[in-house]
Design brief:
Two copies of one chain form a homodimer. Chain A is α/β, with parallel strands linked by helices. The first copy, chain A, has one domain (2-177): Dihydrofolate Reductase, subunit A. The first copy, chain A, is built from five helices and eleven strands, in the order ββααβαββαβαβββββ. The first copy, chain A, has helices at residues 23-29, 40-45, 54-61, 98-107, 118-126; strands at residues 2-10, 14-16, 49-53, 72-76, 91-94, 112-116, 132-138, 140-141, 146-147, 156-165, 171-177. Chain A has an eight-stranded mixed sheet with strand order 5-4-3-6-1-7-11-10. Chain A has a two-stranded antiparallel ribbon with strand order 2-9. In chain A, helix 3 (54-61) links the parallel strand 3 (49-53) and strand 4. Chains A and B meet through strand 8, strand 10 and strand 11 of A and strand 8, strand 10 and strand 11 of B. Strand 8 of chain A pairs antiparallel with strand 10 (156-165) of chain B.
């Protein structure tokens, strides 16, 4: 089982403003040629389970369209969460730790897990469960906001798997964690 | 007059550990082929004045050799600083603000200023005085340390000028600030 992430960040390491706002990303995306999704559809194609926190889930619910189709999604939340009726077939809620969830998904035969949202990504990274991740660096400094990376118990060495840069200034880096626990 | 910076950072945005230690960078550099300096000598060749804070200066003094030859260096420090005798011809100390120093250096005919060290780089960036900078991203996460970037009064939009990646996993990005003040 492979656990990965696919995130956009400002050059100074923020995935959103403090209030969760993505206006700066929308602004940057306005310069992206139509039809260019920076590899997202290729990435998501292989994913069978998406995992995110309740904050990111709330954000995704606010999008004009549900972006994940029939793909299975698990919201990690310590609070009980209301799942909209039309999503109850694919979306579930869990209070499991990253370790417990990873173990369960593996036992269930899941192949490719996508952890999304800053805190969820960080908690899986901290637990040594992430195998690889893709970071798209947007050419802007925000100065403050919600961080992509957080504290970790020890250094994490990475292997650069691939690099791509775009005419509109985005740089996409894909890294593997050198020693994932699982 | 052009003000630029040339920095190495962990992927999570740290230029040193909390105590200033660069062990992680030494560790990464051990994998760099001999003779490969990732463009540093080419960068420094054009520089006529280096500006740094007292902390970075202290670090440079601890290196086995003084790396800047006869190049002029200004240490920004609010405290009075002891300059070693053999460096008194090229190193001076100043309490000027970034704005005042930039104005003076321009009046003196300086062409290419290199601002080094996290706080100095941040204070020039905050003041809108930096024209471009090169960031070399080292494939490691540290989780904590001294940040490359800090708070800024408003978003800073960047243009990606060039990109280079190395077989040993470093990625070097050069950006121009879209609207420098000077």
């Amino acid at each position: 089982m492979n656990i990965s992430a696919f995130m956009a960040t400002s050059l100074d390491g923020f995935i959103a403003r403090k209030d969760g706002s993505l206006d700066w990303l929308d602004h940057a995306n306005a310069l992206v040629p139509k039809g260019e999704d920076c590899g997202y559809s290729e990435f998501i194609e292989d994913i069978d389970v998406i995992v995110m926190g309740s904050r990111t889930f709330g954000k995704v619910l606010s999008f004009p369209e549900w972006p994940y189709g029939k793909r299975r999604l698990i919201v990690l939340s310590s609070k009980s969460l209301e799942i909209p009726k039309h999503l109850k077939g694919t979306v579930s809620c869990s209070r499991e730790t990253p370790e417990a969830l990873a173990k369960r998904l593996k036992a269930e035969g899941a192949k490719n897990i996508y952890v999304d949202g800053g805190l969820t990504f960080q908690s899986f990274l901290k637990a040594g469960l992430v195998h690889e991740f893709t970071v798209t660096i947007i050419p802007v400094l925000l100065g403050d906001g919600i961080r992509l990376f957080g504290g970790i118990p020890e250094d994490i060495s990475l292997d650069l798997l691939s690099e791509k840069h775009y005419g509109f200034g985005f740089v996409q880096l894909r890294y593997a964690i050198q020693k994932p626990k699982q």
